[in-house]
Design goal:
The chain is built from ten helices and eleven strands. By secondary structure, it is an alpha+beta fold. It has two domains: about 5-155; about 155-310, Cathepsin D, subunit A, domain 1 (Beta Barrel), CATH 2.40.70. The strands form two sheets. Strands 6-7-10-5-11-4-3-8-9 form a nine-stranded mixed sheet. The chain has a two-stranded antiparallel ribbon with strand order 1-2. A hairpin with a 2-residue loop joins strand 3 (about 160-165) and strand 4. The longest helix has 30 residues, at about 125-155. The model is unreliable at about 300-310 (pLDDT under 50).
Length: about 300
């Protein structure tokens, strides 16, 4: 079998470029095609040297790792070690998927013309077959990555919360909202936002039906009746900013505790404010509350508040 070095170089250049492009695409990196070509060329030159057995070191495992680091560094110009490590992991992941897809395609088309020399697959198969294998690998990788990412995102973005207030409690579904950083301006307690309708079982209708009047100070006299006094003392007015509303006010109350549950994870927070939202949070009614990610992860500030309150 006659092997042409220029063909080996071009094949590896094309495959390396597709792999580097797919890696950058998955990582959402801003790519410079010249840097990608230089990085792919470096990998192609390595393949030539390994094939020709110029030096035994060219087939050494350590050198292959070093080569990968150089290729990733040239292609994406990482700002720090952590970013470089992430890019390297995605590069290997993509390479393994592409390698499997390309080799499988080559095997089914022309298995008798594939030869492994010094760790590299070479042969007389057309260049378009190798490139086609890379394109198939790219398509499969991108589709699989987005499918898995979407599944994980939907799975992790919701949780169940149980709100305890007085002798009553309610359970509802909440969205983990990275933009929810609300805190009570006085106690610095975290705030979760819950739809008004969900709270009907734990708050009197006279309060839920006059939220704006209570916030504005125009409180109906019925609110001050004896059976409602226990609620009035626990109310807070919370300022907030959102898209289209820069100086909003939200009426909230201090709950006894809130339990956050997500699959095998469970966390109880005893010092928390529940903000009452008058409208629907989800058009499709997928959730009826918003909680911040800091509540799920915990924070030293919350622990400090809890200790002071005790």
């Amino acid at each position: 079998m006659t092997i042409y070095l220029d063909v080996v170089l071009v094949e590896n250049l094309c495959m390396n470029y597709i792999i580097l492009f797919a890696t950058g695409y998955l990582l959402k990196r801003k790519m410079n095609h010249i840097r990608l070509i230089l990085s792919a060329l470096l990998g192609g030159i390595y393949s030539i040297l390994a094939y020709m057995e110029i030096l035994e070191i060219y087939s050494h495992f350590t050198l292959k790792i070093i080569l990968s680091i150089f290729m990733v560094s040239i292609a994406y110009h990482a700002n720090n070690i952590k970013q470089l490590a992430k890019e390297l992991v995605f590069f290997y992941f993509t390479s393994f998927v592409f390698g499997g897809c390309a080799f499988a395609l080559l095997y089914f088309i022309k298995p008798q013309e594939i030869l492994m020399l010094n760790g590299s697959y070479v042969g007389t198969y057309p260049l378009k077959v190798a490139v086609l294998g890379g394109i198939v690998g790219f398509t499969i990788t991108v589709i699989a990555f987005h499918f898995v990412k979407a599944k994980l995102t939907r799975k992790d973005m919701y949780c169940t919360i149980c709100i305890f207030f007085g002798e009553q409690q309610i359970t509802t579904k909440a969205l983990l909202d990275t933009g929810n950083m609300l805190k009570d301006p006085i106690t610095r307690m975290p705030v979760i936002v819950v739809e008004k309708d969900i709270l009907q079982n734990i708050l009197p209708d006279i309060i839920l039906n006059h939220l704006n009047q209570i916030i504005g100070g125009d409180v109906p006299k019925e609110v001050y009746e004896d059976e409602n006094l226990e609620y009035i003392t626990k109310f807070r007015v919370i300022p907030f900013s959102s898209l289209g509303k820069t100086n909003g006010m939200l009426l909230g109350f201090k709950a006894n505790k809130v339990i956050i549950e997500q699959e095998e994870f469970s966390k109880t927070i005893e010092n928390i404010i529940v903000g009452i939202y008058e409208h629907k949070l989800s058009k499709k009614e997928q959730y009826s509350a918003l909680i911040g990610l800091d509540l799920l992860e915990g924070s030293e500030e919350n622990e400090f508040i809890a200790n002071v309150s005790r």
